[in-house]
Predict the structure.
Amino acid sequence: MNLSKLFEKNEEKEFTTFPTTLETYAWYKPFLIIIIAVIIDFVISFAALKITGANPTASKIEQIIYAAITMIALIPGIYIGFKLVYKIPFSTQIAPVRKWNWSIYIKVYIITLIVYGALQLIPMLTSGMPSITNTSITVLILCLILPIFQGFAEEYLCRGLLMQTFGSWFKIPIVAIILQAAIFSIVHNYAIIAAIGVFCVGLLYGLITWYGQGLESASAMHAVNNTFSFLALGIGLQQTVSPNSAIDFVMNLVFLVIPIIIVFALDKKFNWFGEIPENTQNV
């Protein structure tokens, strides 16, 4: 795929402005979707807390796990909201310009996993293995499974619903990408260095989502990032999921940028994303 084609102005549909092509579209309807999603999310999260008897304030890892469950509960909420308001199927919600491509998701996941694994293991091999705390098998399993769904949920919300909402309002993809990244950063409620880092993550995830016209790549990268963070917390290698120093900030960006560069290069060579219609507006 020729990247320059994505910068050509065209009035046809593309990812960020897709909702405006729907007969059921109205500028205020995203608010209805959000209200529906929040109500459903609250009900599911409350029920999960009561059924499991979990204590979300017992430990840092349990807080993170409960937060992940709360985020995952947004998936059915957003889906139902889209379905009721816009009357479009799930596949159209997550990849409106083309069909969802599992091949892209799996390949990007593997690439990101290899990059993260290499960059995480090299320091351990050179400086020695850090001490590891005892962790239950249940927590470890949750640390492996929940990030996959949590990563998708965050993409579904931020790079899906929010980015398309801003795109439909302003008709300029780069504005939609920046605004969703800002909200993505704000809702994480981190200190300044971490907040800037999350904003950069949101920008890059937004760009690769827009480039590929679907949520596969960002969802895969997000899942790997969250999995490493969850496992590090679960086995006691770190105390927080947010970067606390300039070095952490830089390393997190390196972890993110390298897989994106590789994906762009492989797409240029093998046309992973296929021939996306030349219907993308100027960024």
Observations:
- The longest helix spans residues 137-170.
- The chain has one domain: 11-270.
- Confidence is low (pLDDT under 50) at residues 1-11, 277-283.
